[in-house]
Protein backbone atom coordinates (compact mmCIF):
# COMPACT_ATOMS: atom_id res chain seq x y z
CA UNK A 1 0.00 0.00 0.00
CA UNK A 2 1.44 3.35 -0.98
CA UNK A 3 1.44 6.46 1.16
CA UNK A 4 -0.96 8.05 -1.35
CA UNK A 5 -3.41 5.21 -0.82
CA UNK A 6 -3.07 5.67 2.93
CA UNK A 7 -3.93 9.33 2.58
CA UNK A 8 -7.05 8.42 0.65
CA UNK A 9 -8.03 6.13 3.50
CA UNK A 10 -8.87 9.08 5.67
CA UNK A 11 -5.75 10.86 6.88
CA UNK A 12 -6.24 13.83 4.64
CA UNK A 13 -4.27 15.12 1.69
CA UNK A 14 -0.54 14.79 1.30
CA UNK A 15 0.03 18.29 2.70
CA UNK A 16 -1.76 17.39 5.94
CA UNK A 17 0.22 14.22 6.64
CA UNK A 18 1.73 14.35 10.09
CA UNK A 19 5.49 13.96 10.31
CA UNK A 20 7.55 12.56 13.18
CA UNK A 21 9.00 15.19 15.52
CA UNK A 22 12.36 13.38 15.40
CA UNK A 23 12.84 11.88 11.93
CA UNK A 24 13.90 8.27 11.49
CA UNK A 25 17.07 9.37 9.67
CA UNK A 26 18.50 8.35 6.31
CA UNK A 27 21.67 6.96 7.89
CA UNK A 28 19.79 3.74 8.68
CA UNK A 29 19.74 2.92 4.99
CA UNK A 30 23.52 2.58 4.89
CA UNK A 31 24.64 -0.98 4.41
CA UNK A 32 21.14 -2.40 4.56
CA UNK A 33 22.20 -5.14 2.15
CA UNK A 34 25.86 -5.40 3.02
CA UNK A 35 25.99 -9.03 3.99
CA UNK A 36 23.48 -11.27 2.21
CA UNK A 37 25.49 -14.36 3.11
CA UNK A 38 24.92 -14.07 6.85
CA UNK A 39 23.22 -17.06 8.42
CA UNK A 40 19.83 -17.04 10.12
CA UNK A 41 21.38 -17.28 13.60
CA UNK A 42 23.47 -14.19 12.93
CA UNK A 43 20.40 -12.38 11.61
CA UNK A 44 18.51 -13.25 14.77
CA UNK A 45 21.42 -12.01 16.86
CA UNK A 46 21.62 -8.72 14.92
CA UNK A 47 17.86 -8.24 15.34
CA UNK A 48 18.03 -8.76 19.10
CA UNK A 49 20.98 -6.39 19.46
CA UNK A 50 19.22 -3.68 17.45
CA UNK A 51 15.96 -3.85 19.41
CA UNK A 52 17.80 -4.21 22.72
CA UNK A 53 19.82 -1.05 22.01
CA UNK A 54 16.58 0.88 21.40
CA UNK A 55 15.02 -0.50 24.59
CA UNK A 56 18.09 0.39 26.68
CA UNK A 57 17.97 3.98 25.40
CA UNK A 58 14.26 4.56 26.06
CA UNK A 59 14.64 2.76 29.43
CA UNK A 60 16.39 5.91 30.64
CA UNK A 61 12.90 7.41 30.82
CA UNK A 62 11.57 4.90 33.37
CA UNK A 63 14.81 5.26 35.37
CA UNK A 64 13.92 8.96 35.58
CA UNK A 65 10.39 7.91 36.59
CA UNK A 66 11.74 5.76 39.44
CA UNK A 67 14.23 8.39 40.58
CA UNK A 68 11.37 10.88 40.90
CA UNK A 69 9.35 8.40 42.97
CA UNK A 70 12.27 7.58 45.26
CA UNK A 71 13.67 11.09 45.71
CA UNK A 72 11.44 12.27 48.56
CA UNK A 73 12.22 9.35 50.90
CA UNK A 74 15.93 9.96 51.70
CA UNK A 75 15.65 13.77 51.46
CA UNK A 76 12.68 14.52 53.73
CA UNK A 77 14.57 15.43 56.90
CA UNK A 78 17.19 17.56 55.14
CA UNK A 79 14.74 19.51 52.95
CA UNK A 80 12.44 20.23 55.89
CA UNK A 81 15.39 21.48 57.93
CA UNK A 82 17.05 23.60 55.21
CA UNK A 83 13.89 25.25 53.90
CA UNK A 84 12.00 25.18 57.23
CA UNK A 85 9.07 23.21 55.86
CA UNK A 86 6.29 21.72 57.93
CA UNK A 87 5.27 18.10 57.53
CA UNK A 88 2.18 19.14 55.56
CA UNK A 89 4.27 21.31 53.21
CA UNK A 90 6.66 18.46 52.51
CA UNK A 91 3.73 16.07 52.01
CA UNK A 92 2.37 18.50 49.42
CA UNK A 93 5.77 18.52 47.72
CA UNK A 94 5.80 14.72 47.55
CA UNK A 95 2.24 14.45 46.22
CA UNK A 96 2.61 17.08 43.48
CA UNK A 97 4.46 14.61 41.26
CA UNK A 98 1.24 12.58 41.10
CA UNK A 99 -0.73 15.71 40.17
CA UNK A 100 1.75 16.57 37.42
CA UNK A 101 1.72 12.96 36.21
CA UNK A 102 -2.06 13.05 35.86
CA UNK A 103 -1.77 16.11 33.61
CA UNK A 104 0.99 14.41 31.63
CA UNK A 105 -1.09 11.23 31.34
CA UNK A 106 -4.07 13.13 29.93
CA UNK A 107 -1.95 14.59 27.15
CA UNK A 108 0.41 11.64 26.57
CA UNK A 109 -1.75 9.72 24.13
CA UNK A 110 -2.51 12.65 21.87
CA UNK A 111 1.06 13.94 21.94
CA UNK A 112 2.44 10.53 20.98
CA UNK A 113 -0.12 10.18 18.19
CA UNK A 114 0.68 13.56 16.63
CA UNK A 115 4.47 13.79 16.91
CA UNK A 116 5.49 10.18 17.39
CA UNK A 117 6.85 8.12 20.26
CA UNK A 118 10.37 9.58 20.10
CA UNK A 119 9.09 13.15 19.93
CA UNK A 120 6.90 12.51 22.99
CA UNK A 121 9.90 11.31 24.99
CA UNK A 122 11.78 14.46 23.98
CA UNK A 123 8.85 16.55 25.20
CA UNK A 124 8.87 14.59 28.47
CA UNK A 125 12.62 14.90 29.04
CA UNK A 126 12.80 18.71 28.92
CA UNK A 127 10.40 19.52 31.82
CA UNK A 128 12.07 16.80 33.87
CA UNK A 129 15.46 18.48 33.53
CA UNK A 130 14.02 21.92 34.31
CA UNK A 131 12.14 20.48 37.28
CA UNK A 132 15.23 18.89 38.83
CA UNK A 133 17.21 22.10 38.43
CA UNK A 134 14.36 24.07 40.00
CA UNK A 135 14.45 21.78 43.03
CA UNK A 136 18.24 21.88 43.26
CA UNK A 137 18.38 25.69 43.37
CA UNK A 138 15.20 26.17 45.43
CA UNK A 139 15.30 28.87 48.11
CA UNK A 140 11.65 28.56 49.09
CA UNK A 141 8.77 26.06 48.71
CA UNK A 142 7.47 27.63 45.47
CA UNK A 143 10.49 26.41 43.47
CA UNK A 144 10.19 22.96 45.06
CA UNK A 145 6.54 22.74 44.08
CA UNK A 146 7.11 23.97 40.53
CA UNK A 147 9.96 21.51 40.04
CA UNK A 148 7.93 18.60 41.36
CA UNK A 149 5.00 19.44 39.07
CA UNK A 150 7.27 19.62 36.03
CA UNK A 151 8.86 16.28 36.92
CA UNK A 152 5.45 14.72 37.35
CA UNK A 153 4.28 16.01 33.96
CA UNK A 154 7.26 14.41 32.24
CA UNK A 155 6.84 11.17 34.16
CA UNK A 156 3.15 10.99 33.20
CA UNK A 157 4.11 11.02 29.51
CA UNK A 158 6.99 8.58 30.00
CA UNK A 159 4.80 6.08 31.85
CA UNK A 160 2.56 5.72 28.77
CA UNK A 161 4.94 6.20 25.84
CA UNK A 162 7.81 3.89 26.85
CA UNK A 163 5.78 0.65 27.19
CA UNK A 164 3.91 1.46 23.98
CA UNK A 165 7.13 2.12 22.04
CA UNK A 166 8.76 -1.08 23.32
CA UNK A 167 5.69 -3.17 22.45
CA UNK A 168 5.58 -1.70 18.95
CA UNK A 169 9.23 -2.37 18.11
CA UNK A 170 9.80 -5.74 19.81
CA UNK A 171 9.54 -9.12 18.01
CA UNK A 172 6.66 -11.17 19.38
CA UNK A 173 8.98 -13.75 20.98
CA UNK A 174 10.84 -11.05 22.94
CA UNK A 175 8.04 -8.56 23.61
CA UNK A 176 7.21 -9.75 27.12
CA UNK A 177 10.78 -9.63 28.42
CA UNK A 178 11.62 -6.36 26.69
CA UNK A 179 8.32 -4.84 27.82
CA UNK A 180 9.11 -5.74 31.42
CA UNK A 181 12.33 -3.72 31.16
CA UNK A 182 10.07 -0.68 31.62
CA UNK A 183 9.18 -1.63 35.22
CA UNK A 184 12.68 -2.98 35.86
CA UNK A 185 14.07 0.45 34.99
CA UNK A 186 11.57 2.11 37.35
CA UNK A 187 12.79 -0.05 40.23
CA UNK A 188 16.41 0.69 39.32
CA UNK A 189 15.61 4.41 39.44
CA UNK A 190 14.01 4.05 42.88
CA UNK A 191 16.97 2.05 44.17
CA UNK A 192 19.47 4.61 42.83
CA UNK A 193 17.60 7.43 44.57
CA UNK A 194 17.68 5.50 47.86
CA UNK A 195 21.34 4.57 47.45
CA UNK A 196 22.68 7.97 46.38
CA UNK A 197 20.53 9.64 49.03
CA UNK A 198 22.66 7.91 51.67
CA UNK A 199 25.79 9.73 50.47
CA UNK A 200 24.89 13.13 48.93
CA UNK A 201 22.71 16.03 50.06
CA UNK A 202 19.33 16.75 48.54
CA UNK A 203 20.53 19.49 46.18
CA UNK A 204 23.25 17.31 44.66
CA UNK A 205 20.78 14.42 44.44
CA UNK A 206 18.43 16.66 42.43
CA UNK A 207 21.24 17.53 40.01
CA UNK A 208 21.99 13.81 39.61
CA UNK A 209 18.31 13.38 38.78
CA UNK A 210 18.85 15.23 35.49
CA UNK A 211 21.34 12.65 34.19
CA UNK A 212 18.89 10.03 32.80
CA UNK A 213 17.10 12.61 30.66
CA UNK A 214 20.32 14.33 29.66
CA UNK A 215 21.44 10.96 28.28
CA UNK A 216 18.01 10.16 26.81
CA UNK A 217 17.80 13.26 24.58
CA UNK A 218 20.84 12.53 22.37
CA UNK A 219 20.05 8.81 22.45
CA UNK A 220 16.68 9.45 20.78
CA UNK A 221 18.46 10.64 17.63
CA UNK A 222 20.10 7.22 17.19
CA UNK A 223 17.03 4.97 17.34
CA UNK A 224 14.23 4.49 14.80
CA UNK A 225 10.67 5.71 15.29
CA UNK A 226 8.02 3.08 15.98
CA UNK A 227 7.32 1.34 12.64
CA UNK A 228 3.65 0.85 13.53
CA UNK A 229 3.22 4.57 14.20
CA UNK A 230 4.96 5.41 10.92
CA UNK A 231 2.67 2.98 9.08
CA UNK A 232 -0.38 4.54 10.70
CA UNK A 233 0.80 7.98 9.54
CA UNK A 234 1.19 6.70 5.98
CA UNK A 235 4.99 7.11 5.95
CA UNK A 236 5.49 3.82 4.12
CA UNK A 237 9.16 4.21 3.19
CA UNK A 238 10.19 5.26 6.71
CA UNK A 239 8.01 2.51 8.18
CA UNK A 240 9.78 -0.22 6.19
CA UNK A 241 13.20 1.28 6.88
CA UNK A 242 12.52 1.42 10.62
CA UNK A 243 11.31 -2.18 10.69
CA UNK A 244 14.33 -3.35 8.68
CA UNK A 245 16.70 -1.71 11.16
CA UNK A 246 14.91 -3.31 14.09
CA UNK A 247 14.84 -6.80 12.58
CA UNK A 248 18.34 -6.76 11.09
CA UNK A 249 19.49 -5.62 7.66
CA UNK A 250 19.41 -9.18 6.28
CA UNK A 251 16.10 -10.23 7.81
CA UNK A 252 13.09 -10.87 5.58
CA UNK A 253 10.41 -8.49 6.88
CA UNK A 254 7.88 -9.07 4.06
CA UNK A 255 5.33 -10.96 6.16
CA UNK A 256 5.49 -8.51 9.07
CA UNK A 257 5.24 -5.53 6.71
CA UNK A 258 2.14 -6.97 5.04
CA UNK A 259 0.54 -7.84 8.38
CA UNK A 260 1.04 -4.32 9.73
CA UNK A 261 -0.23 -2.79 6.48
CA UNK A 262 -3.38 -4.92 6.62
CA UNK A 263 -3.96 -3.92 10.23
CA UNK A 264 -3.49 -0.23 9.48
CA UNK A 265 -5.73 -0.41 6.40
CA UNK A 266 -8.53 -2.02 8.40
CA UNK A 267 -8.56 0.85 10.91
CA UNK A 268 -7.86 3.81 8.62
CA UNK A 269 -11.15 4.16 6.80
CA UNK A 270 -12.44 6.67 9.32
CA UNK A 271 -10.15 8.54 11.69
CA UNK A 272 -12.78 10.16 13.90
CA UNK A 273 -13.49 8.07 16.98
CA UNK A 274 -17.06 8.25 18.26
CA UNK A 275 -18.28 7.20 21.70
CA UNK A 276 -20.78 4.91 19.96
CA UNK A 277 -17.82 2.94 18.60
CA UNK A 278 -16.82 1.97 22.13
CA UNK A 279 -19.91 -0.27 22.28
CA UNK A 280 -18.11 -2.67 19.96
CA UNK A 281 -16.42 -5.58 21.73
CA UNK A 282 -13.18 -4.92 19.82
CA UNK A 283 -12.92 -1.57 21.66
CA UNK A 284 -14.69 -1.77 25.01
CA UNK A 285 -13.17 -5.07 26.11
CA UNK A 286 -9.45 -4.17 25.71
CA UNK A 287 -10.16 -0.69 27.07
CA UNK A 288 -11.84 -2.16 30.16
CA UNK A 289 -9.09 -4.73 30.72
CA UNK A 290 -6.32 -2.13 30.35
CA UNK A 291 -7.92 0.41 32.70
CA UNK A 292 -9.05 -2.04 35.40
CA UNK A 293 -5.72 -3.85 35.48
CA UNK A 294 -3.80 -0.59 36.00
CA UNK A 295 -6.27 0.48 38.71
CA UNK A 296 -5.95 -2.86 40.51
CA UNK A 297 -2.17 -2.49 40.38
CA UNK A 298 -2.58 0.48 42.74
CA UNK A 299 -5.52 -0.82 44.81
CA UNK A 300 -3.35 -3.72 45.91
CA UNK A 301 -1.75 -1.15 48.20
CA UNK A 302 1.85 -1.21 47.04
CA UNK A 303 2.29 2.51 47.71
CA UNK A 304 0.62 2.20 51.10
CA UNK A 305 2.90 -0.68 52.08
CA UNK A 306 6.05 1.12 50.95
CA UNK A 307 4.84 4.30 52.66
CA UNK A 308 4.50 2.42 55.96
CA UNK A 309 7.54 0.16 55.56
CA UNK A 310 9.89 2.40 57.59
CA UNK A 311 7.50 2.23 60.57
CA UNK A 312 7.28 -1.53 60.21
CA UNK A 313 11.08 -1.77 60.18
CA UNK A 314 11.31 0.38 63.30
CA UNK A 315 8.72 -1.75 65.08
CA UNK A 316 10.81 -4.82 64.25
CA UNK A 317 13.86 -3.23 65.85
CA UNK A 318 15.63 -2.15 62.64
CA UNK A 319 17.16 1.20 63.55
CA UNK A 320 18.43 2.37 60.14
CA UNK A 321 15.20 2.80 58.17
CA UNK A 322 17.00 4.41 55.20
CA UNK A 323 19.32 1.42 54.80
CA UNK A 324 16.34 -0.92 55.14
CA UNK A 325 14.46 1.08 52.51
CA UNK A 326 17.43 0.70 50.14
CA UNK A 327 17.29 -3.05 50.81
CA UNK A 328 13.64 -3.04 49.78
CA UNK A 329 14.58 -1.19 46.60
CA UNK A 330 17.26 -3.75 45.80
CA UNK A 331 14.80 -6.60 46.36
CA UNK A 332 12.39 -4.94 43.92
CA UNK A 333 15.08 -4.78 41.25
CA UNK A 334 16.01 -8.45 41.63
CA UNK A 335 12.39 -9.66 41.64
CA UNK A 336 11.48 -7.52 38.61
CA UNK A 337 14.55 -8.85 36.76
CA UNK A 338 13.27 -12.38 37.41
CA UNK A 339 9.86 -11.38 36.01
CA UNK A 340 11.58 -9.97 32.91
CA UNK A 341 13.16 -13.38 32.34
CA UNK A 342 9.97 -15.35 33.07
CA UNK A 343 7.27 -13.40 31.26
CA UNK A 344 7.93 -14.85 27.78
CA UNK A 345 8.35 -18.35 29.21
CA UNK A 346 5.33 -18.67 31.52
CA UNK A 347 2.98 -16.13 29.96
CA UNK A 348 1.31 -13.01 31.33
CA UNK A 349 -1.80 -14.50 32.94
CA UNK A 350 0.04 -17.07 35.05
CA UNK A 351 2.48 -14.50 36.42
CA UNK A 352 -0.37 -12.10 37.21
CA UNK A 353 -2.29 -14.79 39.09
CA UNK A 354 0.79 -15.99 41.00
CA UNK A 355 1.74 -12.39 41.79
CA UNK A 356 -1.72 -11.38 43.04
CA UNK A 357 -2.09 -14.57 45.08
CA UNK A 358 1.34 -14.01 46.65
CA UNK A 359 0.42 -10.41 47.48
CA UNK A 360 -2.83 -11.49 49.12
CA UNK A 361 -1.05 -14.12 51.23
CA UNK A 362 1.71 -11.66 52.23
CA UNK A 363 -0.81 -8.97 53.19
CA UNK A 364 -2.67 -11.54 55.29
CA UNK A 365 0.55 -12.14 57.25
CA UNK A 366 1.01 -8.40 57.83
CA UNK A 367 -2.66 -7.87 58.77
CA UNK A 368 -2.66 -10.74 61.28
CA UNK A 369 0.62 -9.48 62.77
CA UNK A 370 -0.85 -6.05 63.41
CA UNK A 371 -4.14 -7.40 64.74
CA UNK A 372 -2.40 -9.67 67.25
CA UNK A 373 0.13 -6.99 68.31
CA UNK A 374 -2.80 -4.93 69.56
CA UNK A 375 -3.44 -7.57 72.23
CA UNK A 376 0.17 -8.30 73.21
CA UNK A 377 2.43 -6.46 75.66
CA UNK A 378 5.25 -4.50 74.01
CA UNK A 379 7.72 -6.08 76.46
CA UNK A 380 6.87 -9.64 75.46
CA UNK A 381 8.89 -11.87 73.17
CA UNK A 382 5.81 -12.46 71.02
CA UNK A 383 5.59 -8.73 70.26
CA UNK A 384 9.10 -8.79 68.77
CA UNK A 385 8.32 -11.96 66.82
CA UNK A 386 5.22 -10.33 65.36
CA UNK A 387 7.31 -7.32 64.33
CA UNK A 388 9.72 -9.59 62.45
CA UNK A 389 6.75 -11.44 60.92
CA UNK A 390 5.32 -8.16 59.62
CA UNK A 391 8.68 -7.35 57.98
CA UNK A 392 8.69 -10.78 56.33
CA UNK A 393 5.16 -10.11 55.05
CA UNK A 394 6.17 -6.72 53.61
CA UNK A 395 9.21 -8.18 51.84
CA UNK A 396 7.16 -11.08 50.42
CA UNK A 397 4.50 -8.63 49.27
CA UNK A 398 7.04 -6.49 47.41
CA UNK A 399 8.61 -9.58 45.80
CA UNK A 400 5.17 -10.83 44.72
CA UNK A 401 4.24 -7.42 43.30
CA UNK A 402 7.49 -7.19 41.35
CA UNK A 403 7.00 -10.65 39.81
CA UNK A 404 3.78 -9.70 38.03
CA UNK A 405 1.55 -6.84 39.13
CA UNK A 406 4.42 -4.37 38.81
CA UNK A 407 5.54 -4.86 35.19
CA UNK A 408 2.74 -6.78 33.47
CA UNK A 409 -0.26 -4.36 33.63
CA UNK A 410 1.80 -1.80 31.67
CA UNK A 411 2.83 -4.53 29.22
CA UNK A 412 -0.75 -5.76 28.75
CA UNK A 413 -2.00 -2.18 28.21
CA UNK A 414 0.57 -1.60 25.47
CA UNK A 415 -0.29 -4.91 23.76
CA UNK A 416 -4.09 -5.08 23.69
CA UNK A 417 -5.24 -1.53 22.87
CA UNK A 418 -6.33 -1.27 19.21
CA UNK A 419 -4.41 1.16 17.00
CA UNK A 420 -7.48 3.30 16.41
CA UNK A 421 -8.08 4.10 20.09
CA UNK A 422 -4.56 3.61 21.47
CA UNK A 423 -3.89 7.33 22.04
CA UNK A 424 -7.16 8.11 23.83
CA UNK A 425 -7.46 4.75 25.62
CA UNK A 426 -3.81 4.69 26.66
CA UNK A 427 -4.06 8.18 28.11
CA UNK A 428 -7.20 7.20 30.02
CA UNK A 429 -5.64 4.03 31.43
CA UNK A 430 -2.46 5.89 32.46
CA UNK A 431 -4.51 8.68 34.05
CA UNK A 432 -6.53 6.10 36.01
CA UNK A 433 -3.32 4.52 37.29
CA UNK A 434 -1.88 7.83 38.49
CA UNK A 435 -5.20 8.93 40.00
CA UNK A 436 -5.47 5.80 42.13
CA UNK A 437 -1.78 5.99 42.98
CA UNK A 438 -2.50 9.42 44.42
CA UNK A 439 -5.61 8.14 46.23
CA UNK A 440 -3.69 5.28 47.88
CA UNK A 441 -0.79 7.57 48.86
CA UNK A 442 -3.12 10.17 50.39
CA UNK A 443 -5.39 7.72 52.21
CA UNK A 444 -2.70 5.34 53.53
CA UNK A 445 -1.78 7.46 56.60
CA UNK A 446 -5.47 7.98 57.43
CA UNK A 447 -6.27 4.30 57.11
CA UNK A 448 -3.22 3.35 59.16
CA UNK A 449 -4.36 5.72 61.91
CA UNK A 450 -7.77 4.06 61.84
CA UNK A 451 -6.49 0.46 61.89
CA UNK A 452 -3.24 -0.96 60.57
CA UNK A 453 -4.63 -4.48 60.45
CA UNK A 454 -7.81 -3.25 58.79
CA UNK A 455 -5.82 -1.37 56.15
CA UNK A 456 -3.82 -4.41 55.11
CA UNK A 457 -7.00 -6.49 55.10
CA UNK A 458 -8.55 -4.09 52.58
CA UNK A 459 -5.47 -4.36 50.38
CA UNK A 460 -5.60 -8.14 50.69
CA UNK A 461 -9.23 -8.26 49.52
CA UNK A 462 -8.35 -6.16 46.47
CA UNK A 463 -5.54 -8.58 45.61
CA UNK A 464 -7.96 -11.51 45.87
CA UNK A 465 -10.33 -9.66 43.53
CA UNK A 466 -7.43 -9.16 41.10
CA UNK A 467 -6.90 -12.94 40.93
CA UNK A 468 -10.54 -13.41 39.90
CA UNK A 469 -10.44 -10.56 37.38
CA UNK A 470 -7.32 -11.89 35.67
CA UNK A 471 -8.70 -15.43 35.52
CA UNK A 472 -11.95 -14.26 33.90
CA UNK A 473 -11.08 -11.26 31.73
CA UNK A 474 -7.38 -10.93 30.94
CA UNK A 475 -6.30 -12.66 27.70
CA UNK A 476 -2.96 -14.40 27.23
CA UNK A 477 -0.84 -12.40 24.78
CA UNK A 478 2.34 -14.45 24.88
CA UNK A 479 3.69 -15.44 21.45
CA UNK A 480 1.15 -13.40 19.45
CA UNK A 481 1.76 -10.36 17.28
CA UNK A 482 0.06 -7.10 18.20
CA UNK A 483 -2.14 -7.46 15.13
CA UNK A 484 -3.22 -10.98 16.15
CA UNK A 485 -4.02 -9.77 19.67
CA UNK A 486 -6.17 -6.91 18.41
CA UNK A 487 -7.92 -9.13 15.84
CA UNK A 488 -8.89 -11.56 18.63
CA UNK A 489 -11.14 -8.92 20.23
CA UNK A 490 -13.32 -8.55 17.14
From TrEMBL:
The chain crosses the membrane at residues 48-67, 87-107, 119-137, 143-166, 178-196, 202-223, 283-308, 323-343, 350-372, 384-412, 424-450, 456-474. Residues 8-19 have a biased composition (Basic and acidic residues). Residues 54-478 form the Major facilitator superfamily (MFS) profile domain. It is a multi-pass membrane protein. GO terms for cellular component: membrane. The keyword Transit peptide does not apply. Pfam families: Sugar_tr. Residues 1-20 are annotated as: Disordered. It is found in: Membrane. Keywords: Membrane, Sugar transport, Transmembrane, Transmembrane helix, Transport. PANTHER family: PTHR48021, SUGAR TRANSPORTER ERD6-LIKE 6 (PTHR48021:SF54). Belongs to the major facilitator superfamily. Phosphate:H(+) symporter (TC 2.A.1.9) family. Belongs to the major facilitator superfamily. Sugar transporter (TC 2.A.1.1) family. NCBIfam families: SP (TIGR00879). This is Sugar transporter erd6-like 6. It comes from Nicotiana attenuata (Coyote tobacco). The lineage of its organism: Eukaryota, Viridiplantae, Streptophyta, Embryophyta, Tracheophyta.
